Amino acid sequence: MPGITREEVAHLARLARLELTDEELDHFAGQLDDIIGAVARVADVATEDVPPTSHPLPLTNVMRPDEVRPGLTARQALSGAPAQEQQRFKVPQILGEE
């Protein structure tokens, strides 16, 4: 017998506005019970001797330094554009705004 009942699963389904069959209620009751059991086991593992951490391994910044480098000129960037206006890409209007 699962720790979470079919009625509790049905109640959760109603709150979430889900329509579940009887087979789904039974199936999800077992799955939710397994999930709740796994979460409870995590609480048993944590001990007073282990400091809280955000990651088990030390992390270092792997990003490159932010350096100014030459880029494309407006003419180069727009060279393959099908339409342009005032040194910008021109695209079709989609929102109906002026």
Describe this protein's structure.
This protein has three helices and two strands; from the N terminus they run αααββ. The protein is mostly helical and 98 residues long. β1 and β2 form a beta hairpin. α1 crosses α2. The termini are far apart.
Summarize the structure.
Its EC number is 6.3.5.-. The chain is mainly alpha-helical and 98 residues long.
Gross morphology: flat
Which CATH-level-2 architecture of the domain at 6-45? Orthogonal Bundle
- Proportion of residues in extended strands: under 5%
Order of adjacent strands in the largest pleated sheet: 1-2
Low-pLDDT parts are none
For this structure, what is the CATH class of the domain at 6-45?
A: Mainly Alpha
Helix content: 25-40%
Mean pLDDT across every amino acid position: 86
Rounded radius of gyration (Å): 29 Å
CATH topology of the domain at 6-45, by name, is Histone, subunit A
Instruction: Classify the secondary structure makeup into a structural class.
Output: mainly alpha
End-to-end CA span: 65 Å
- Could you give a short account of the major beta sheet? 2 strands, antiparallel
Number of helices: 3
CATH superfamily of the domain at 6-45: Glu-tRNAGln amidotransferase C subunit, N-terminal domain
Total number of strands:
2
The H-and-E topology, N to C, reads as: HHHEE
Any chance you could write out the topology, listing elements then pairs?
Layout: H1 6-15, H2 22-45, H3 74-78, E1 84-85, E2 88-89
Antiparallel strand pairs: 1-2
Helix pairs in contact: 1-2
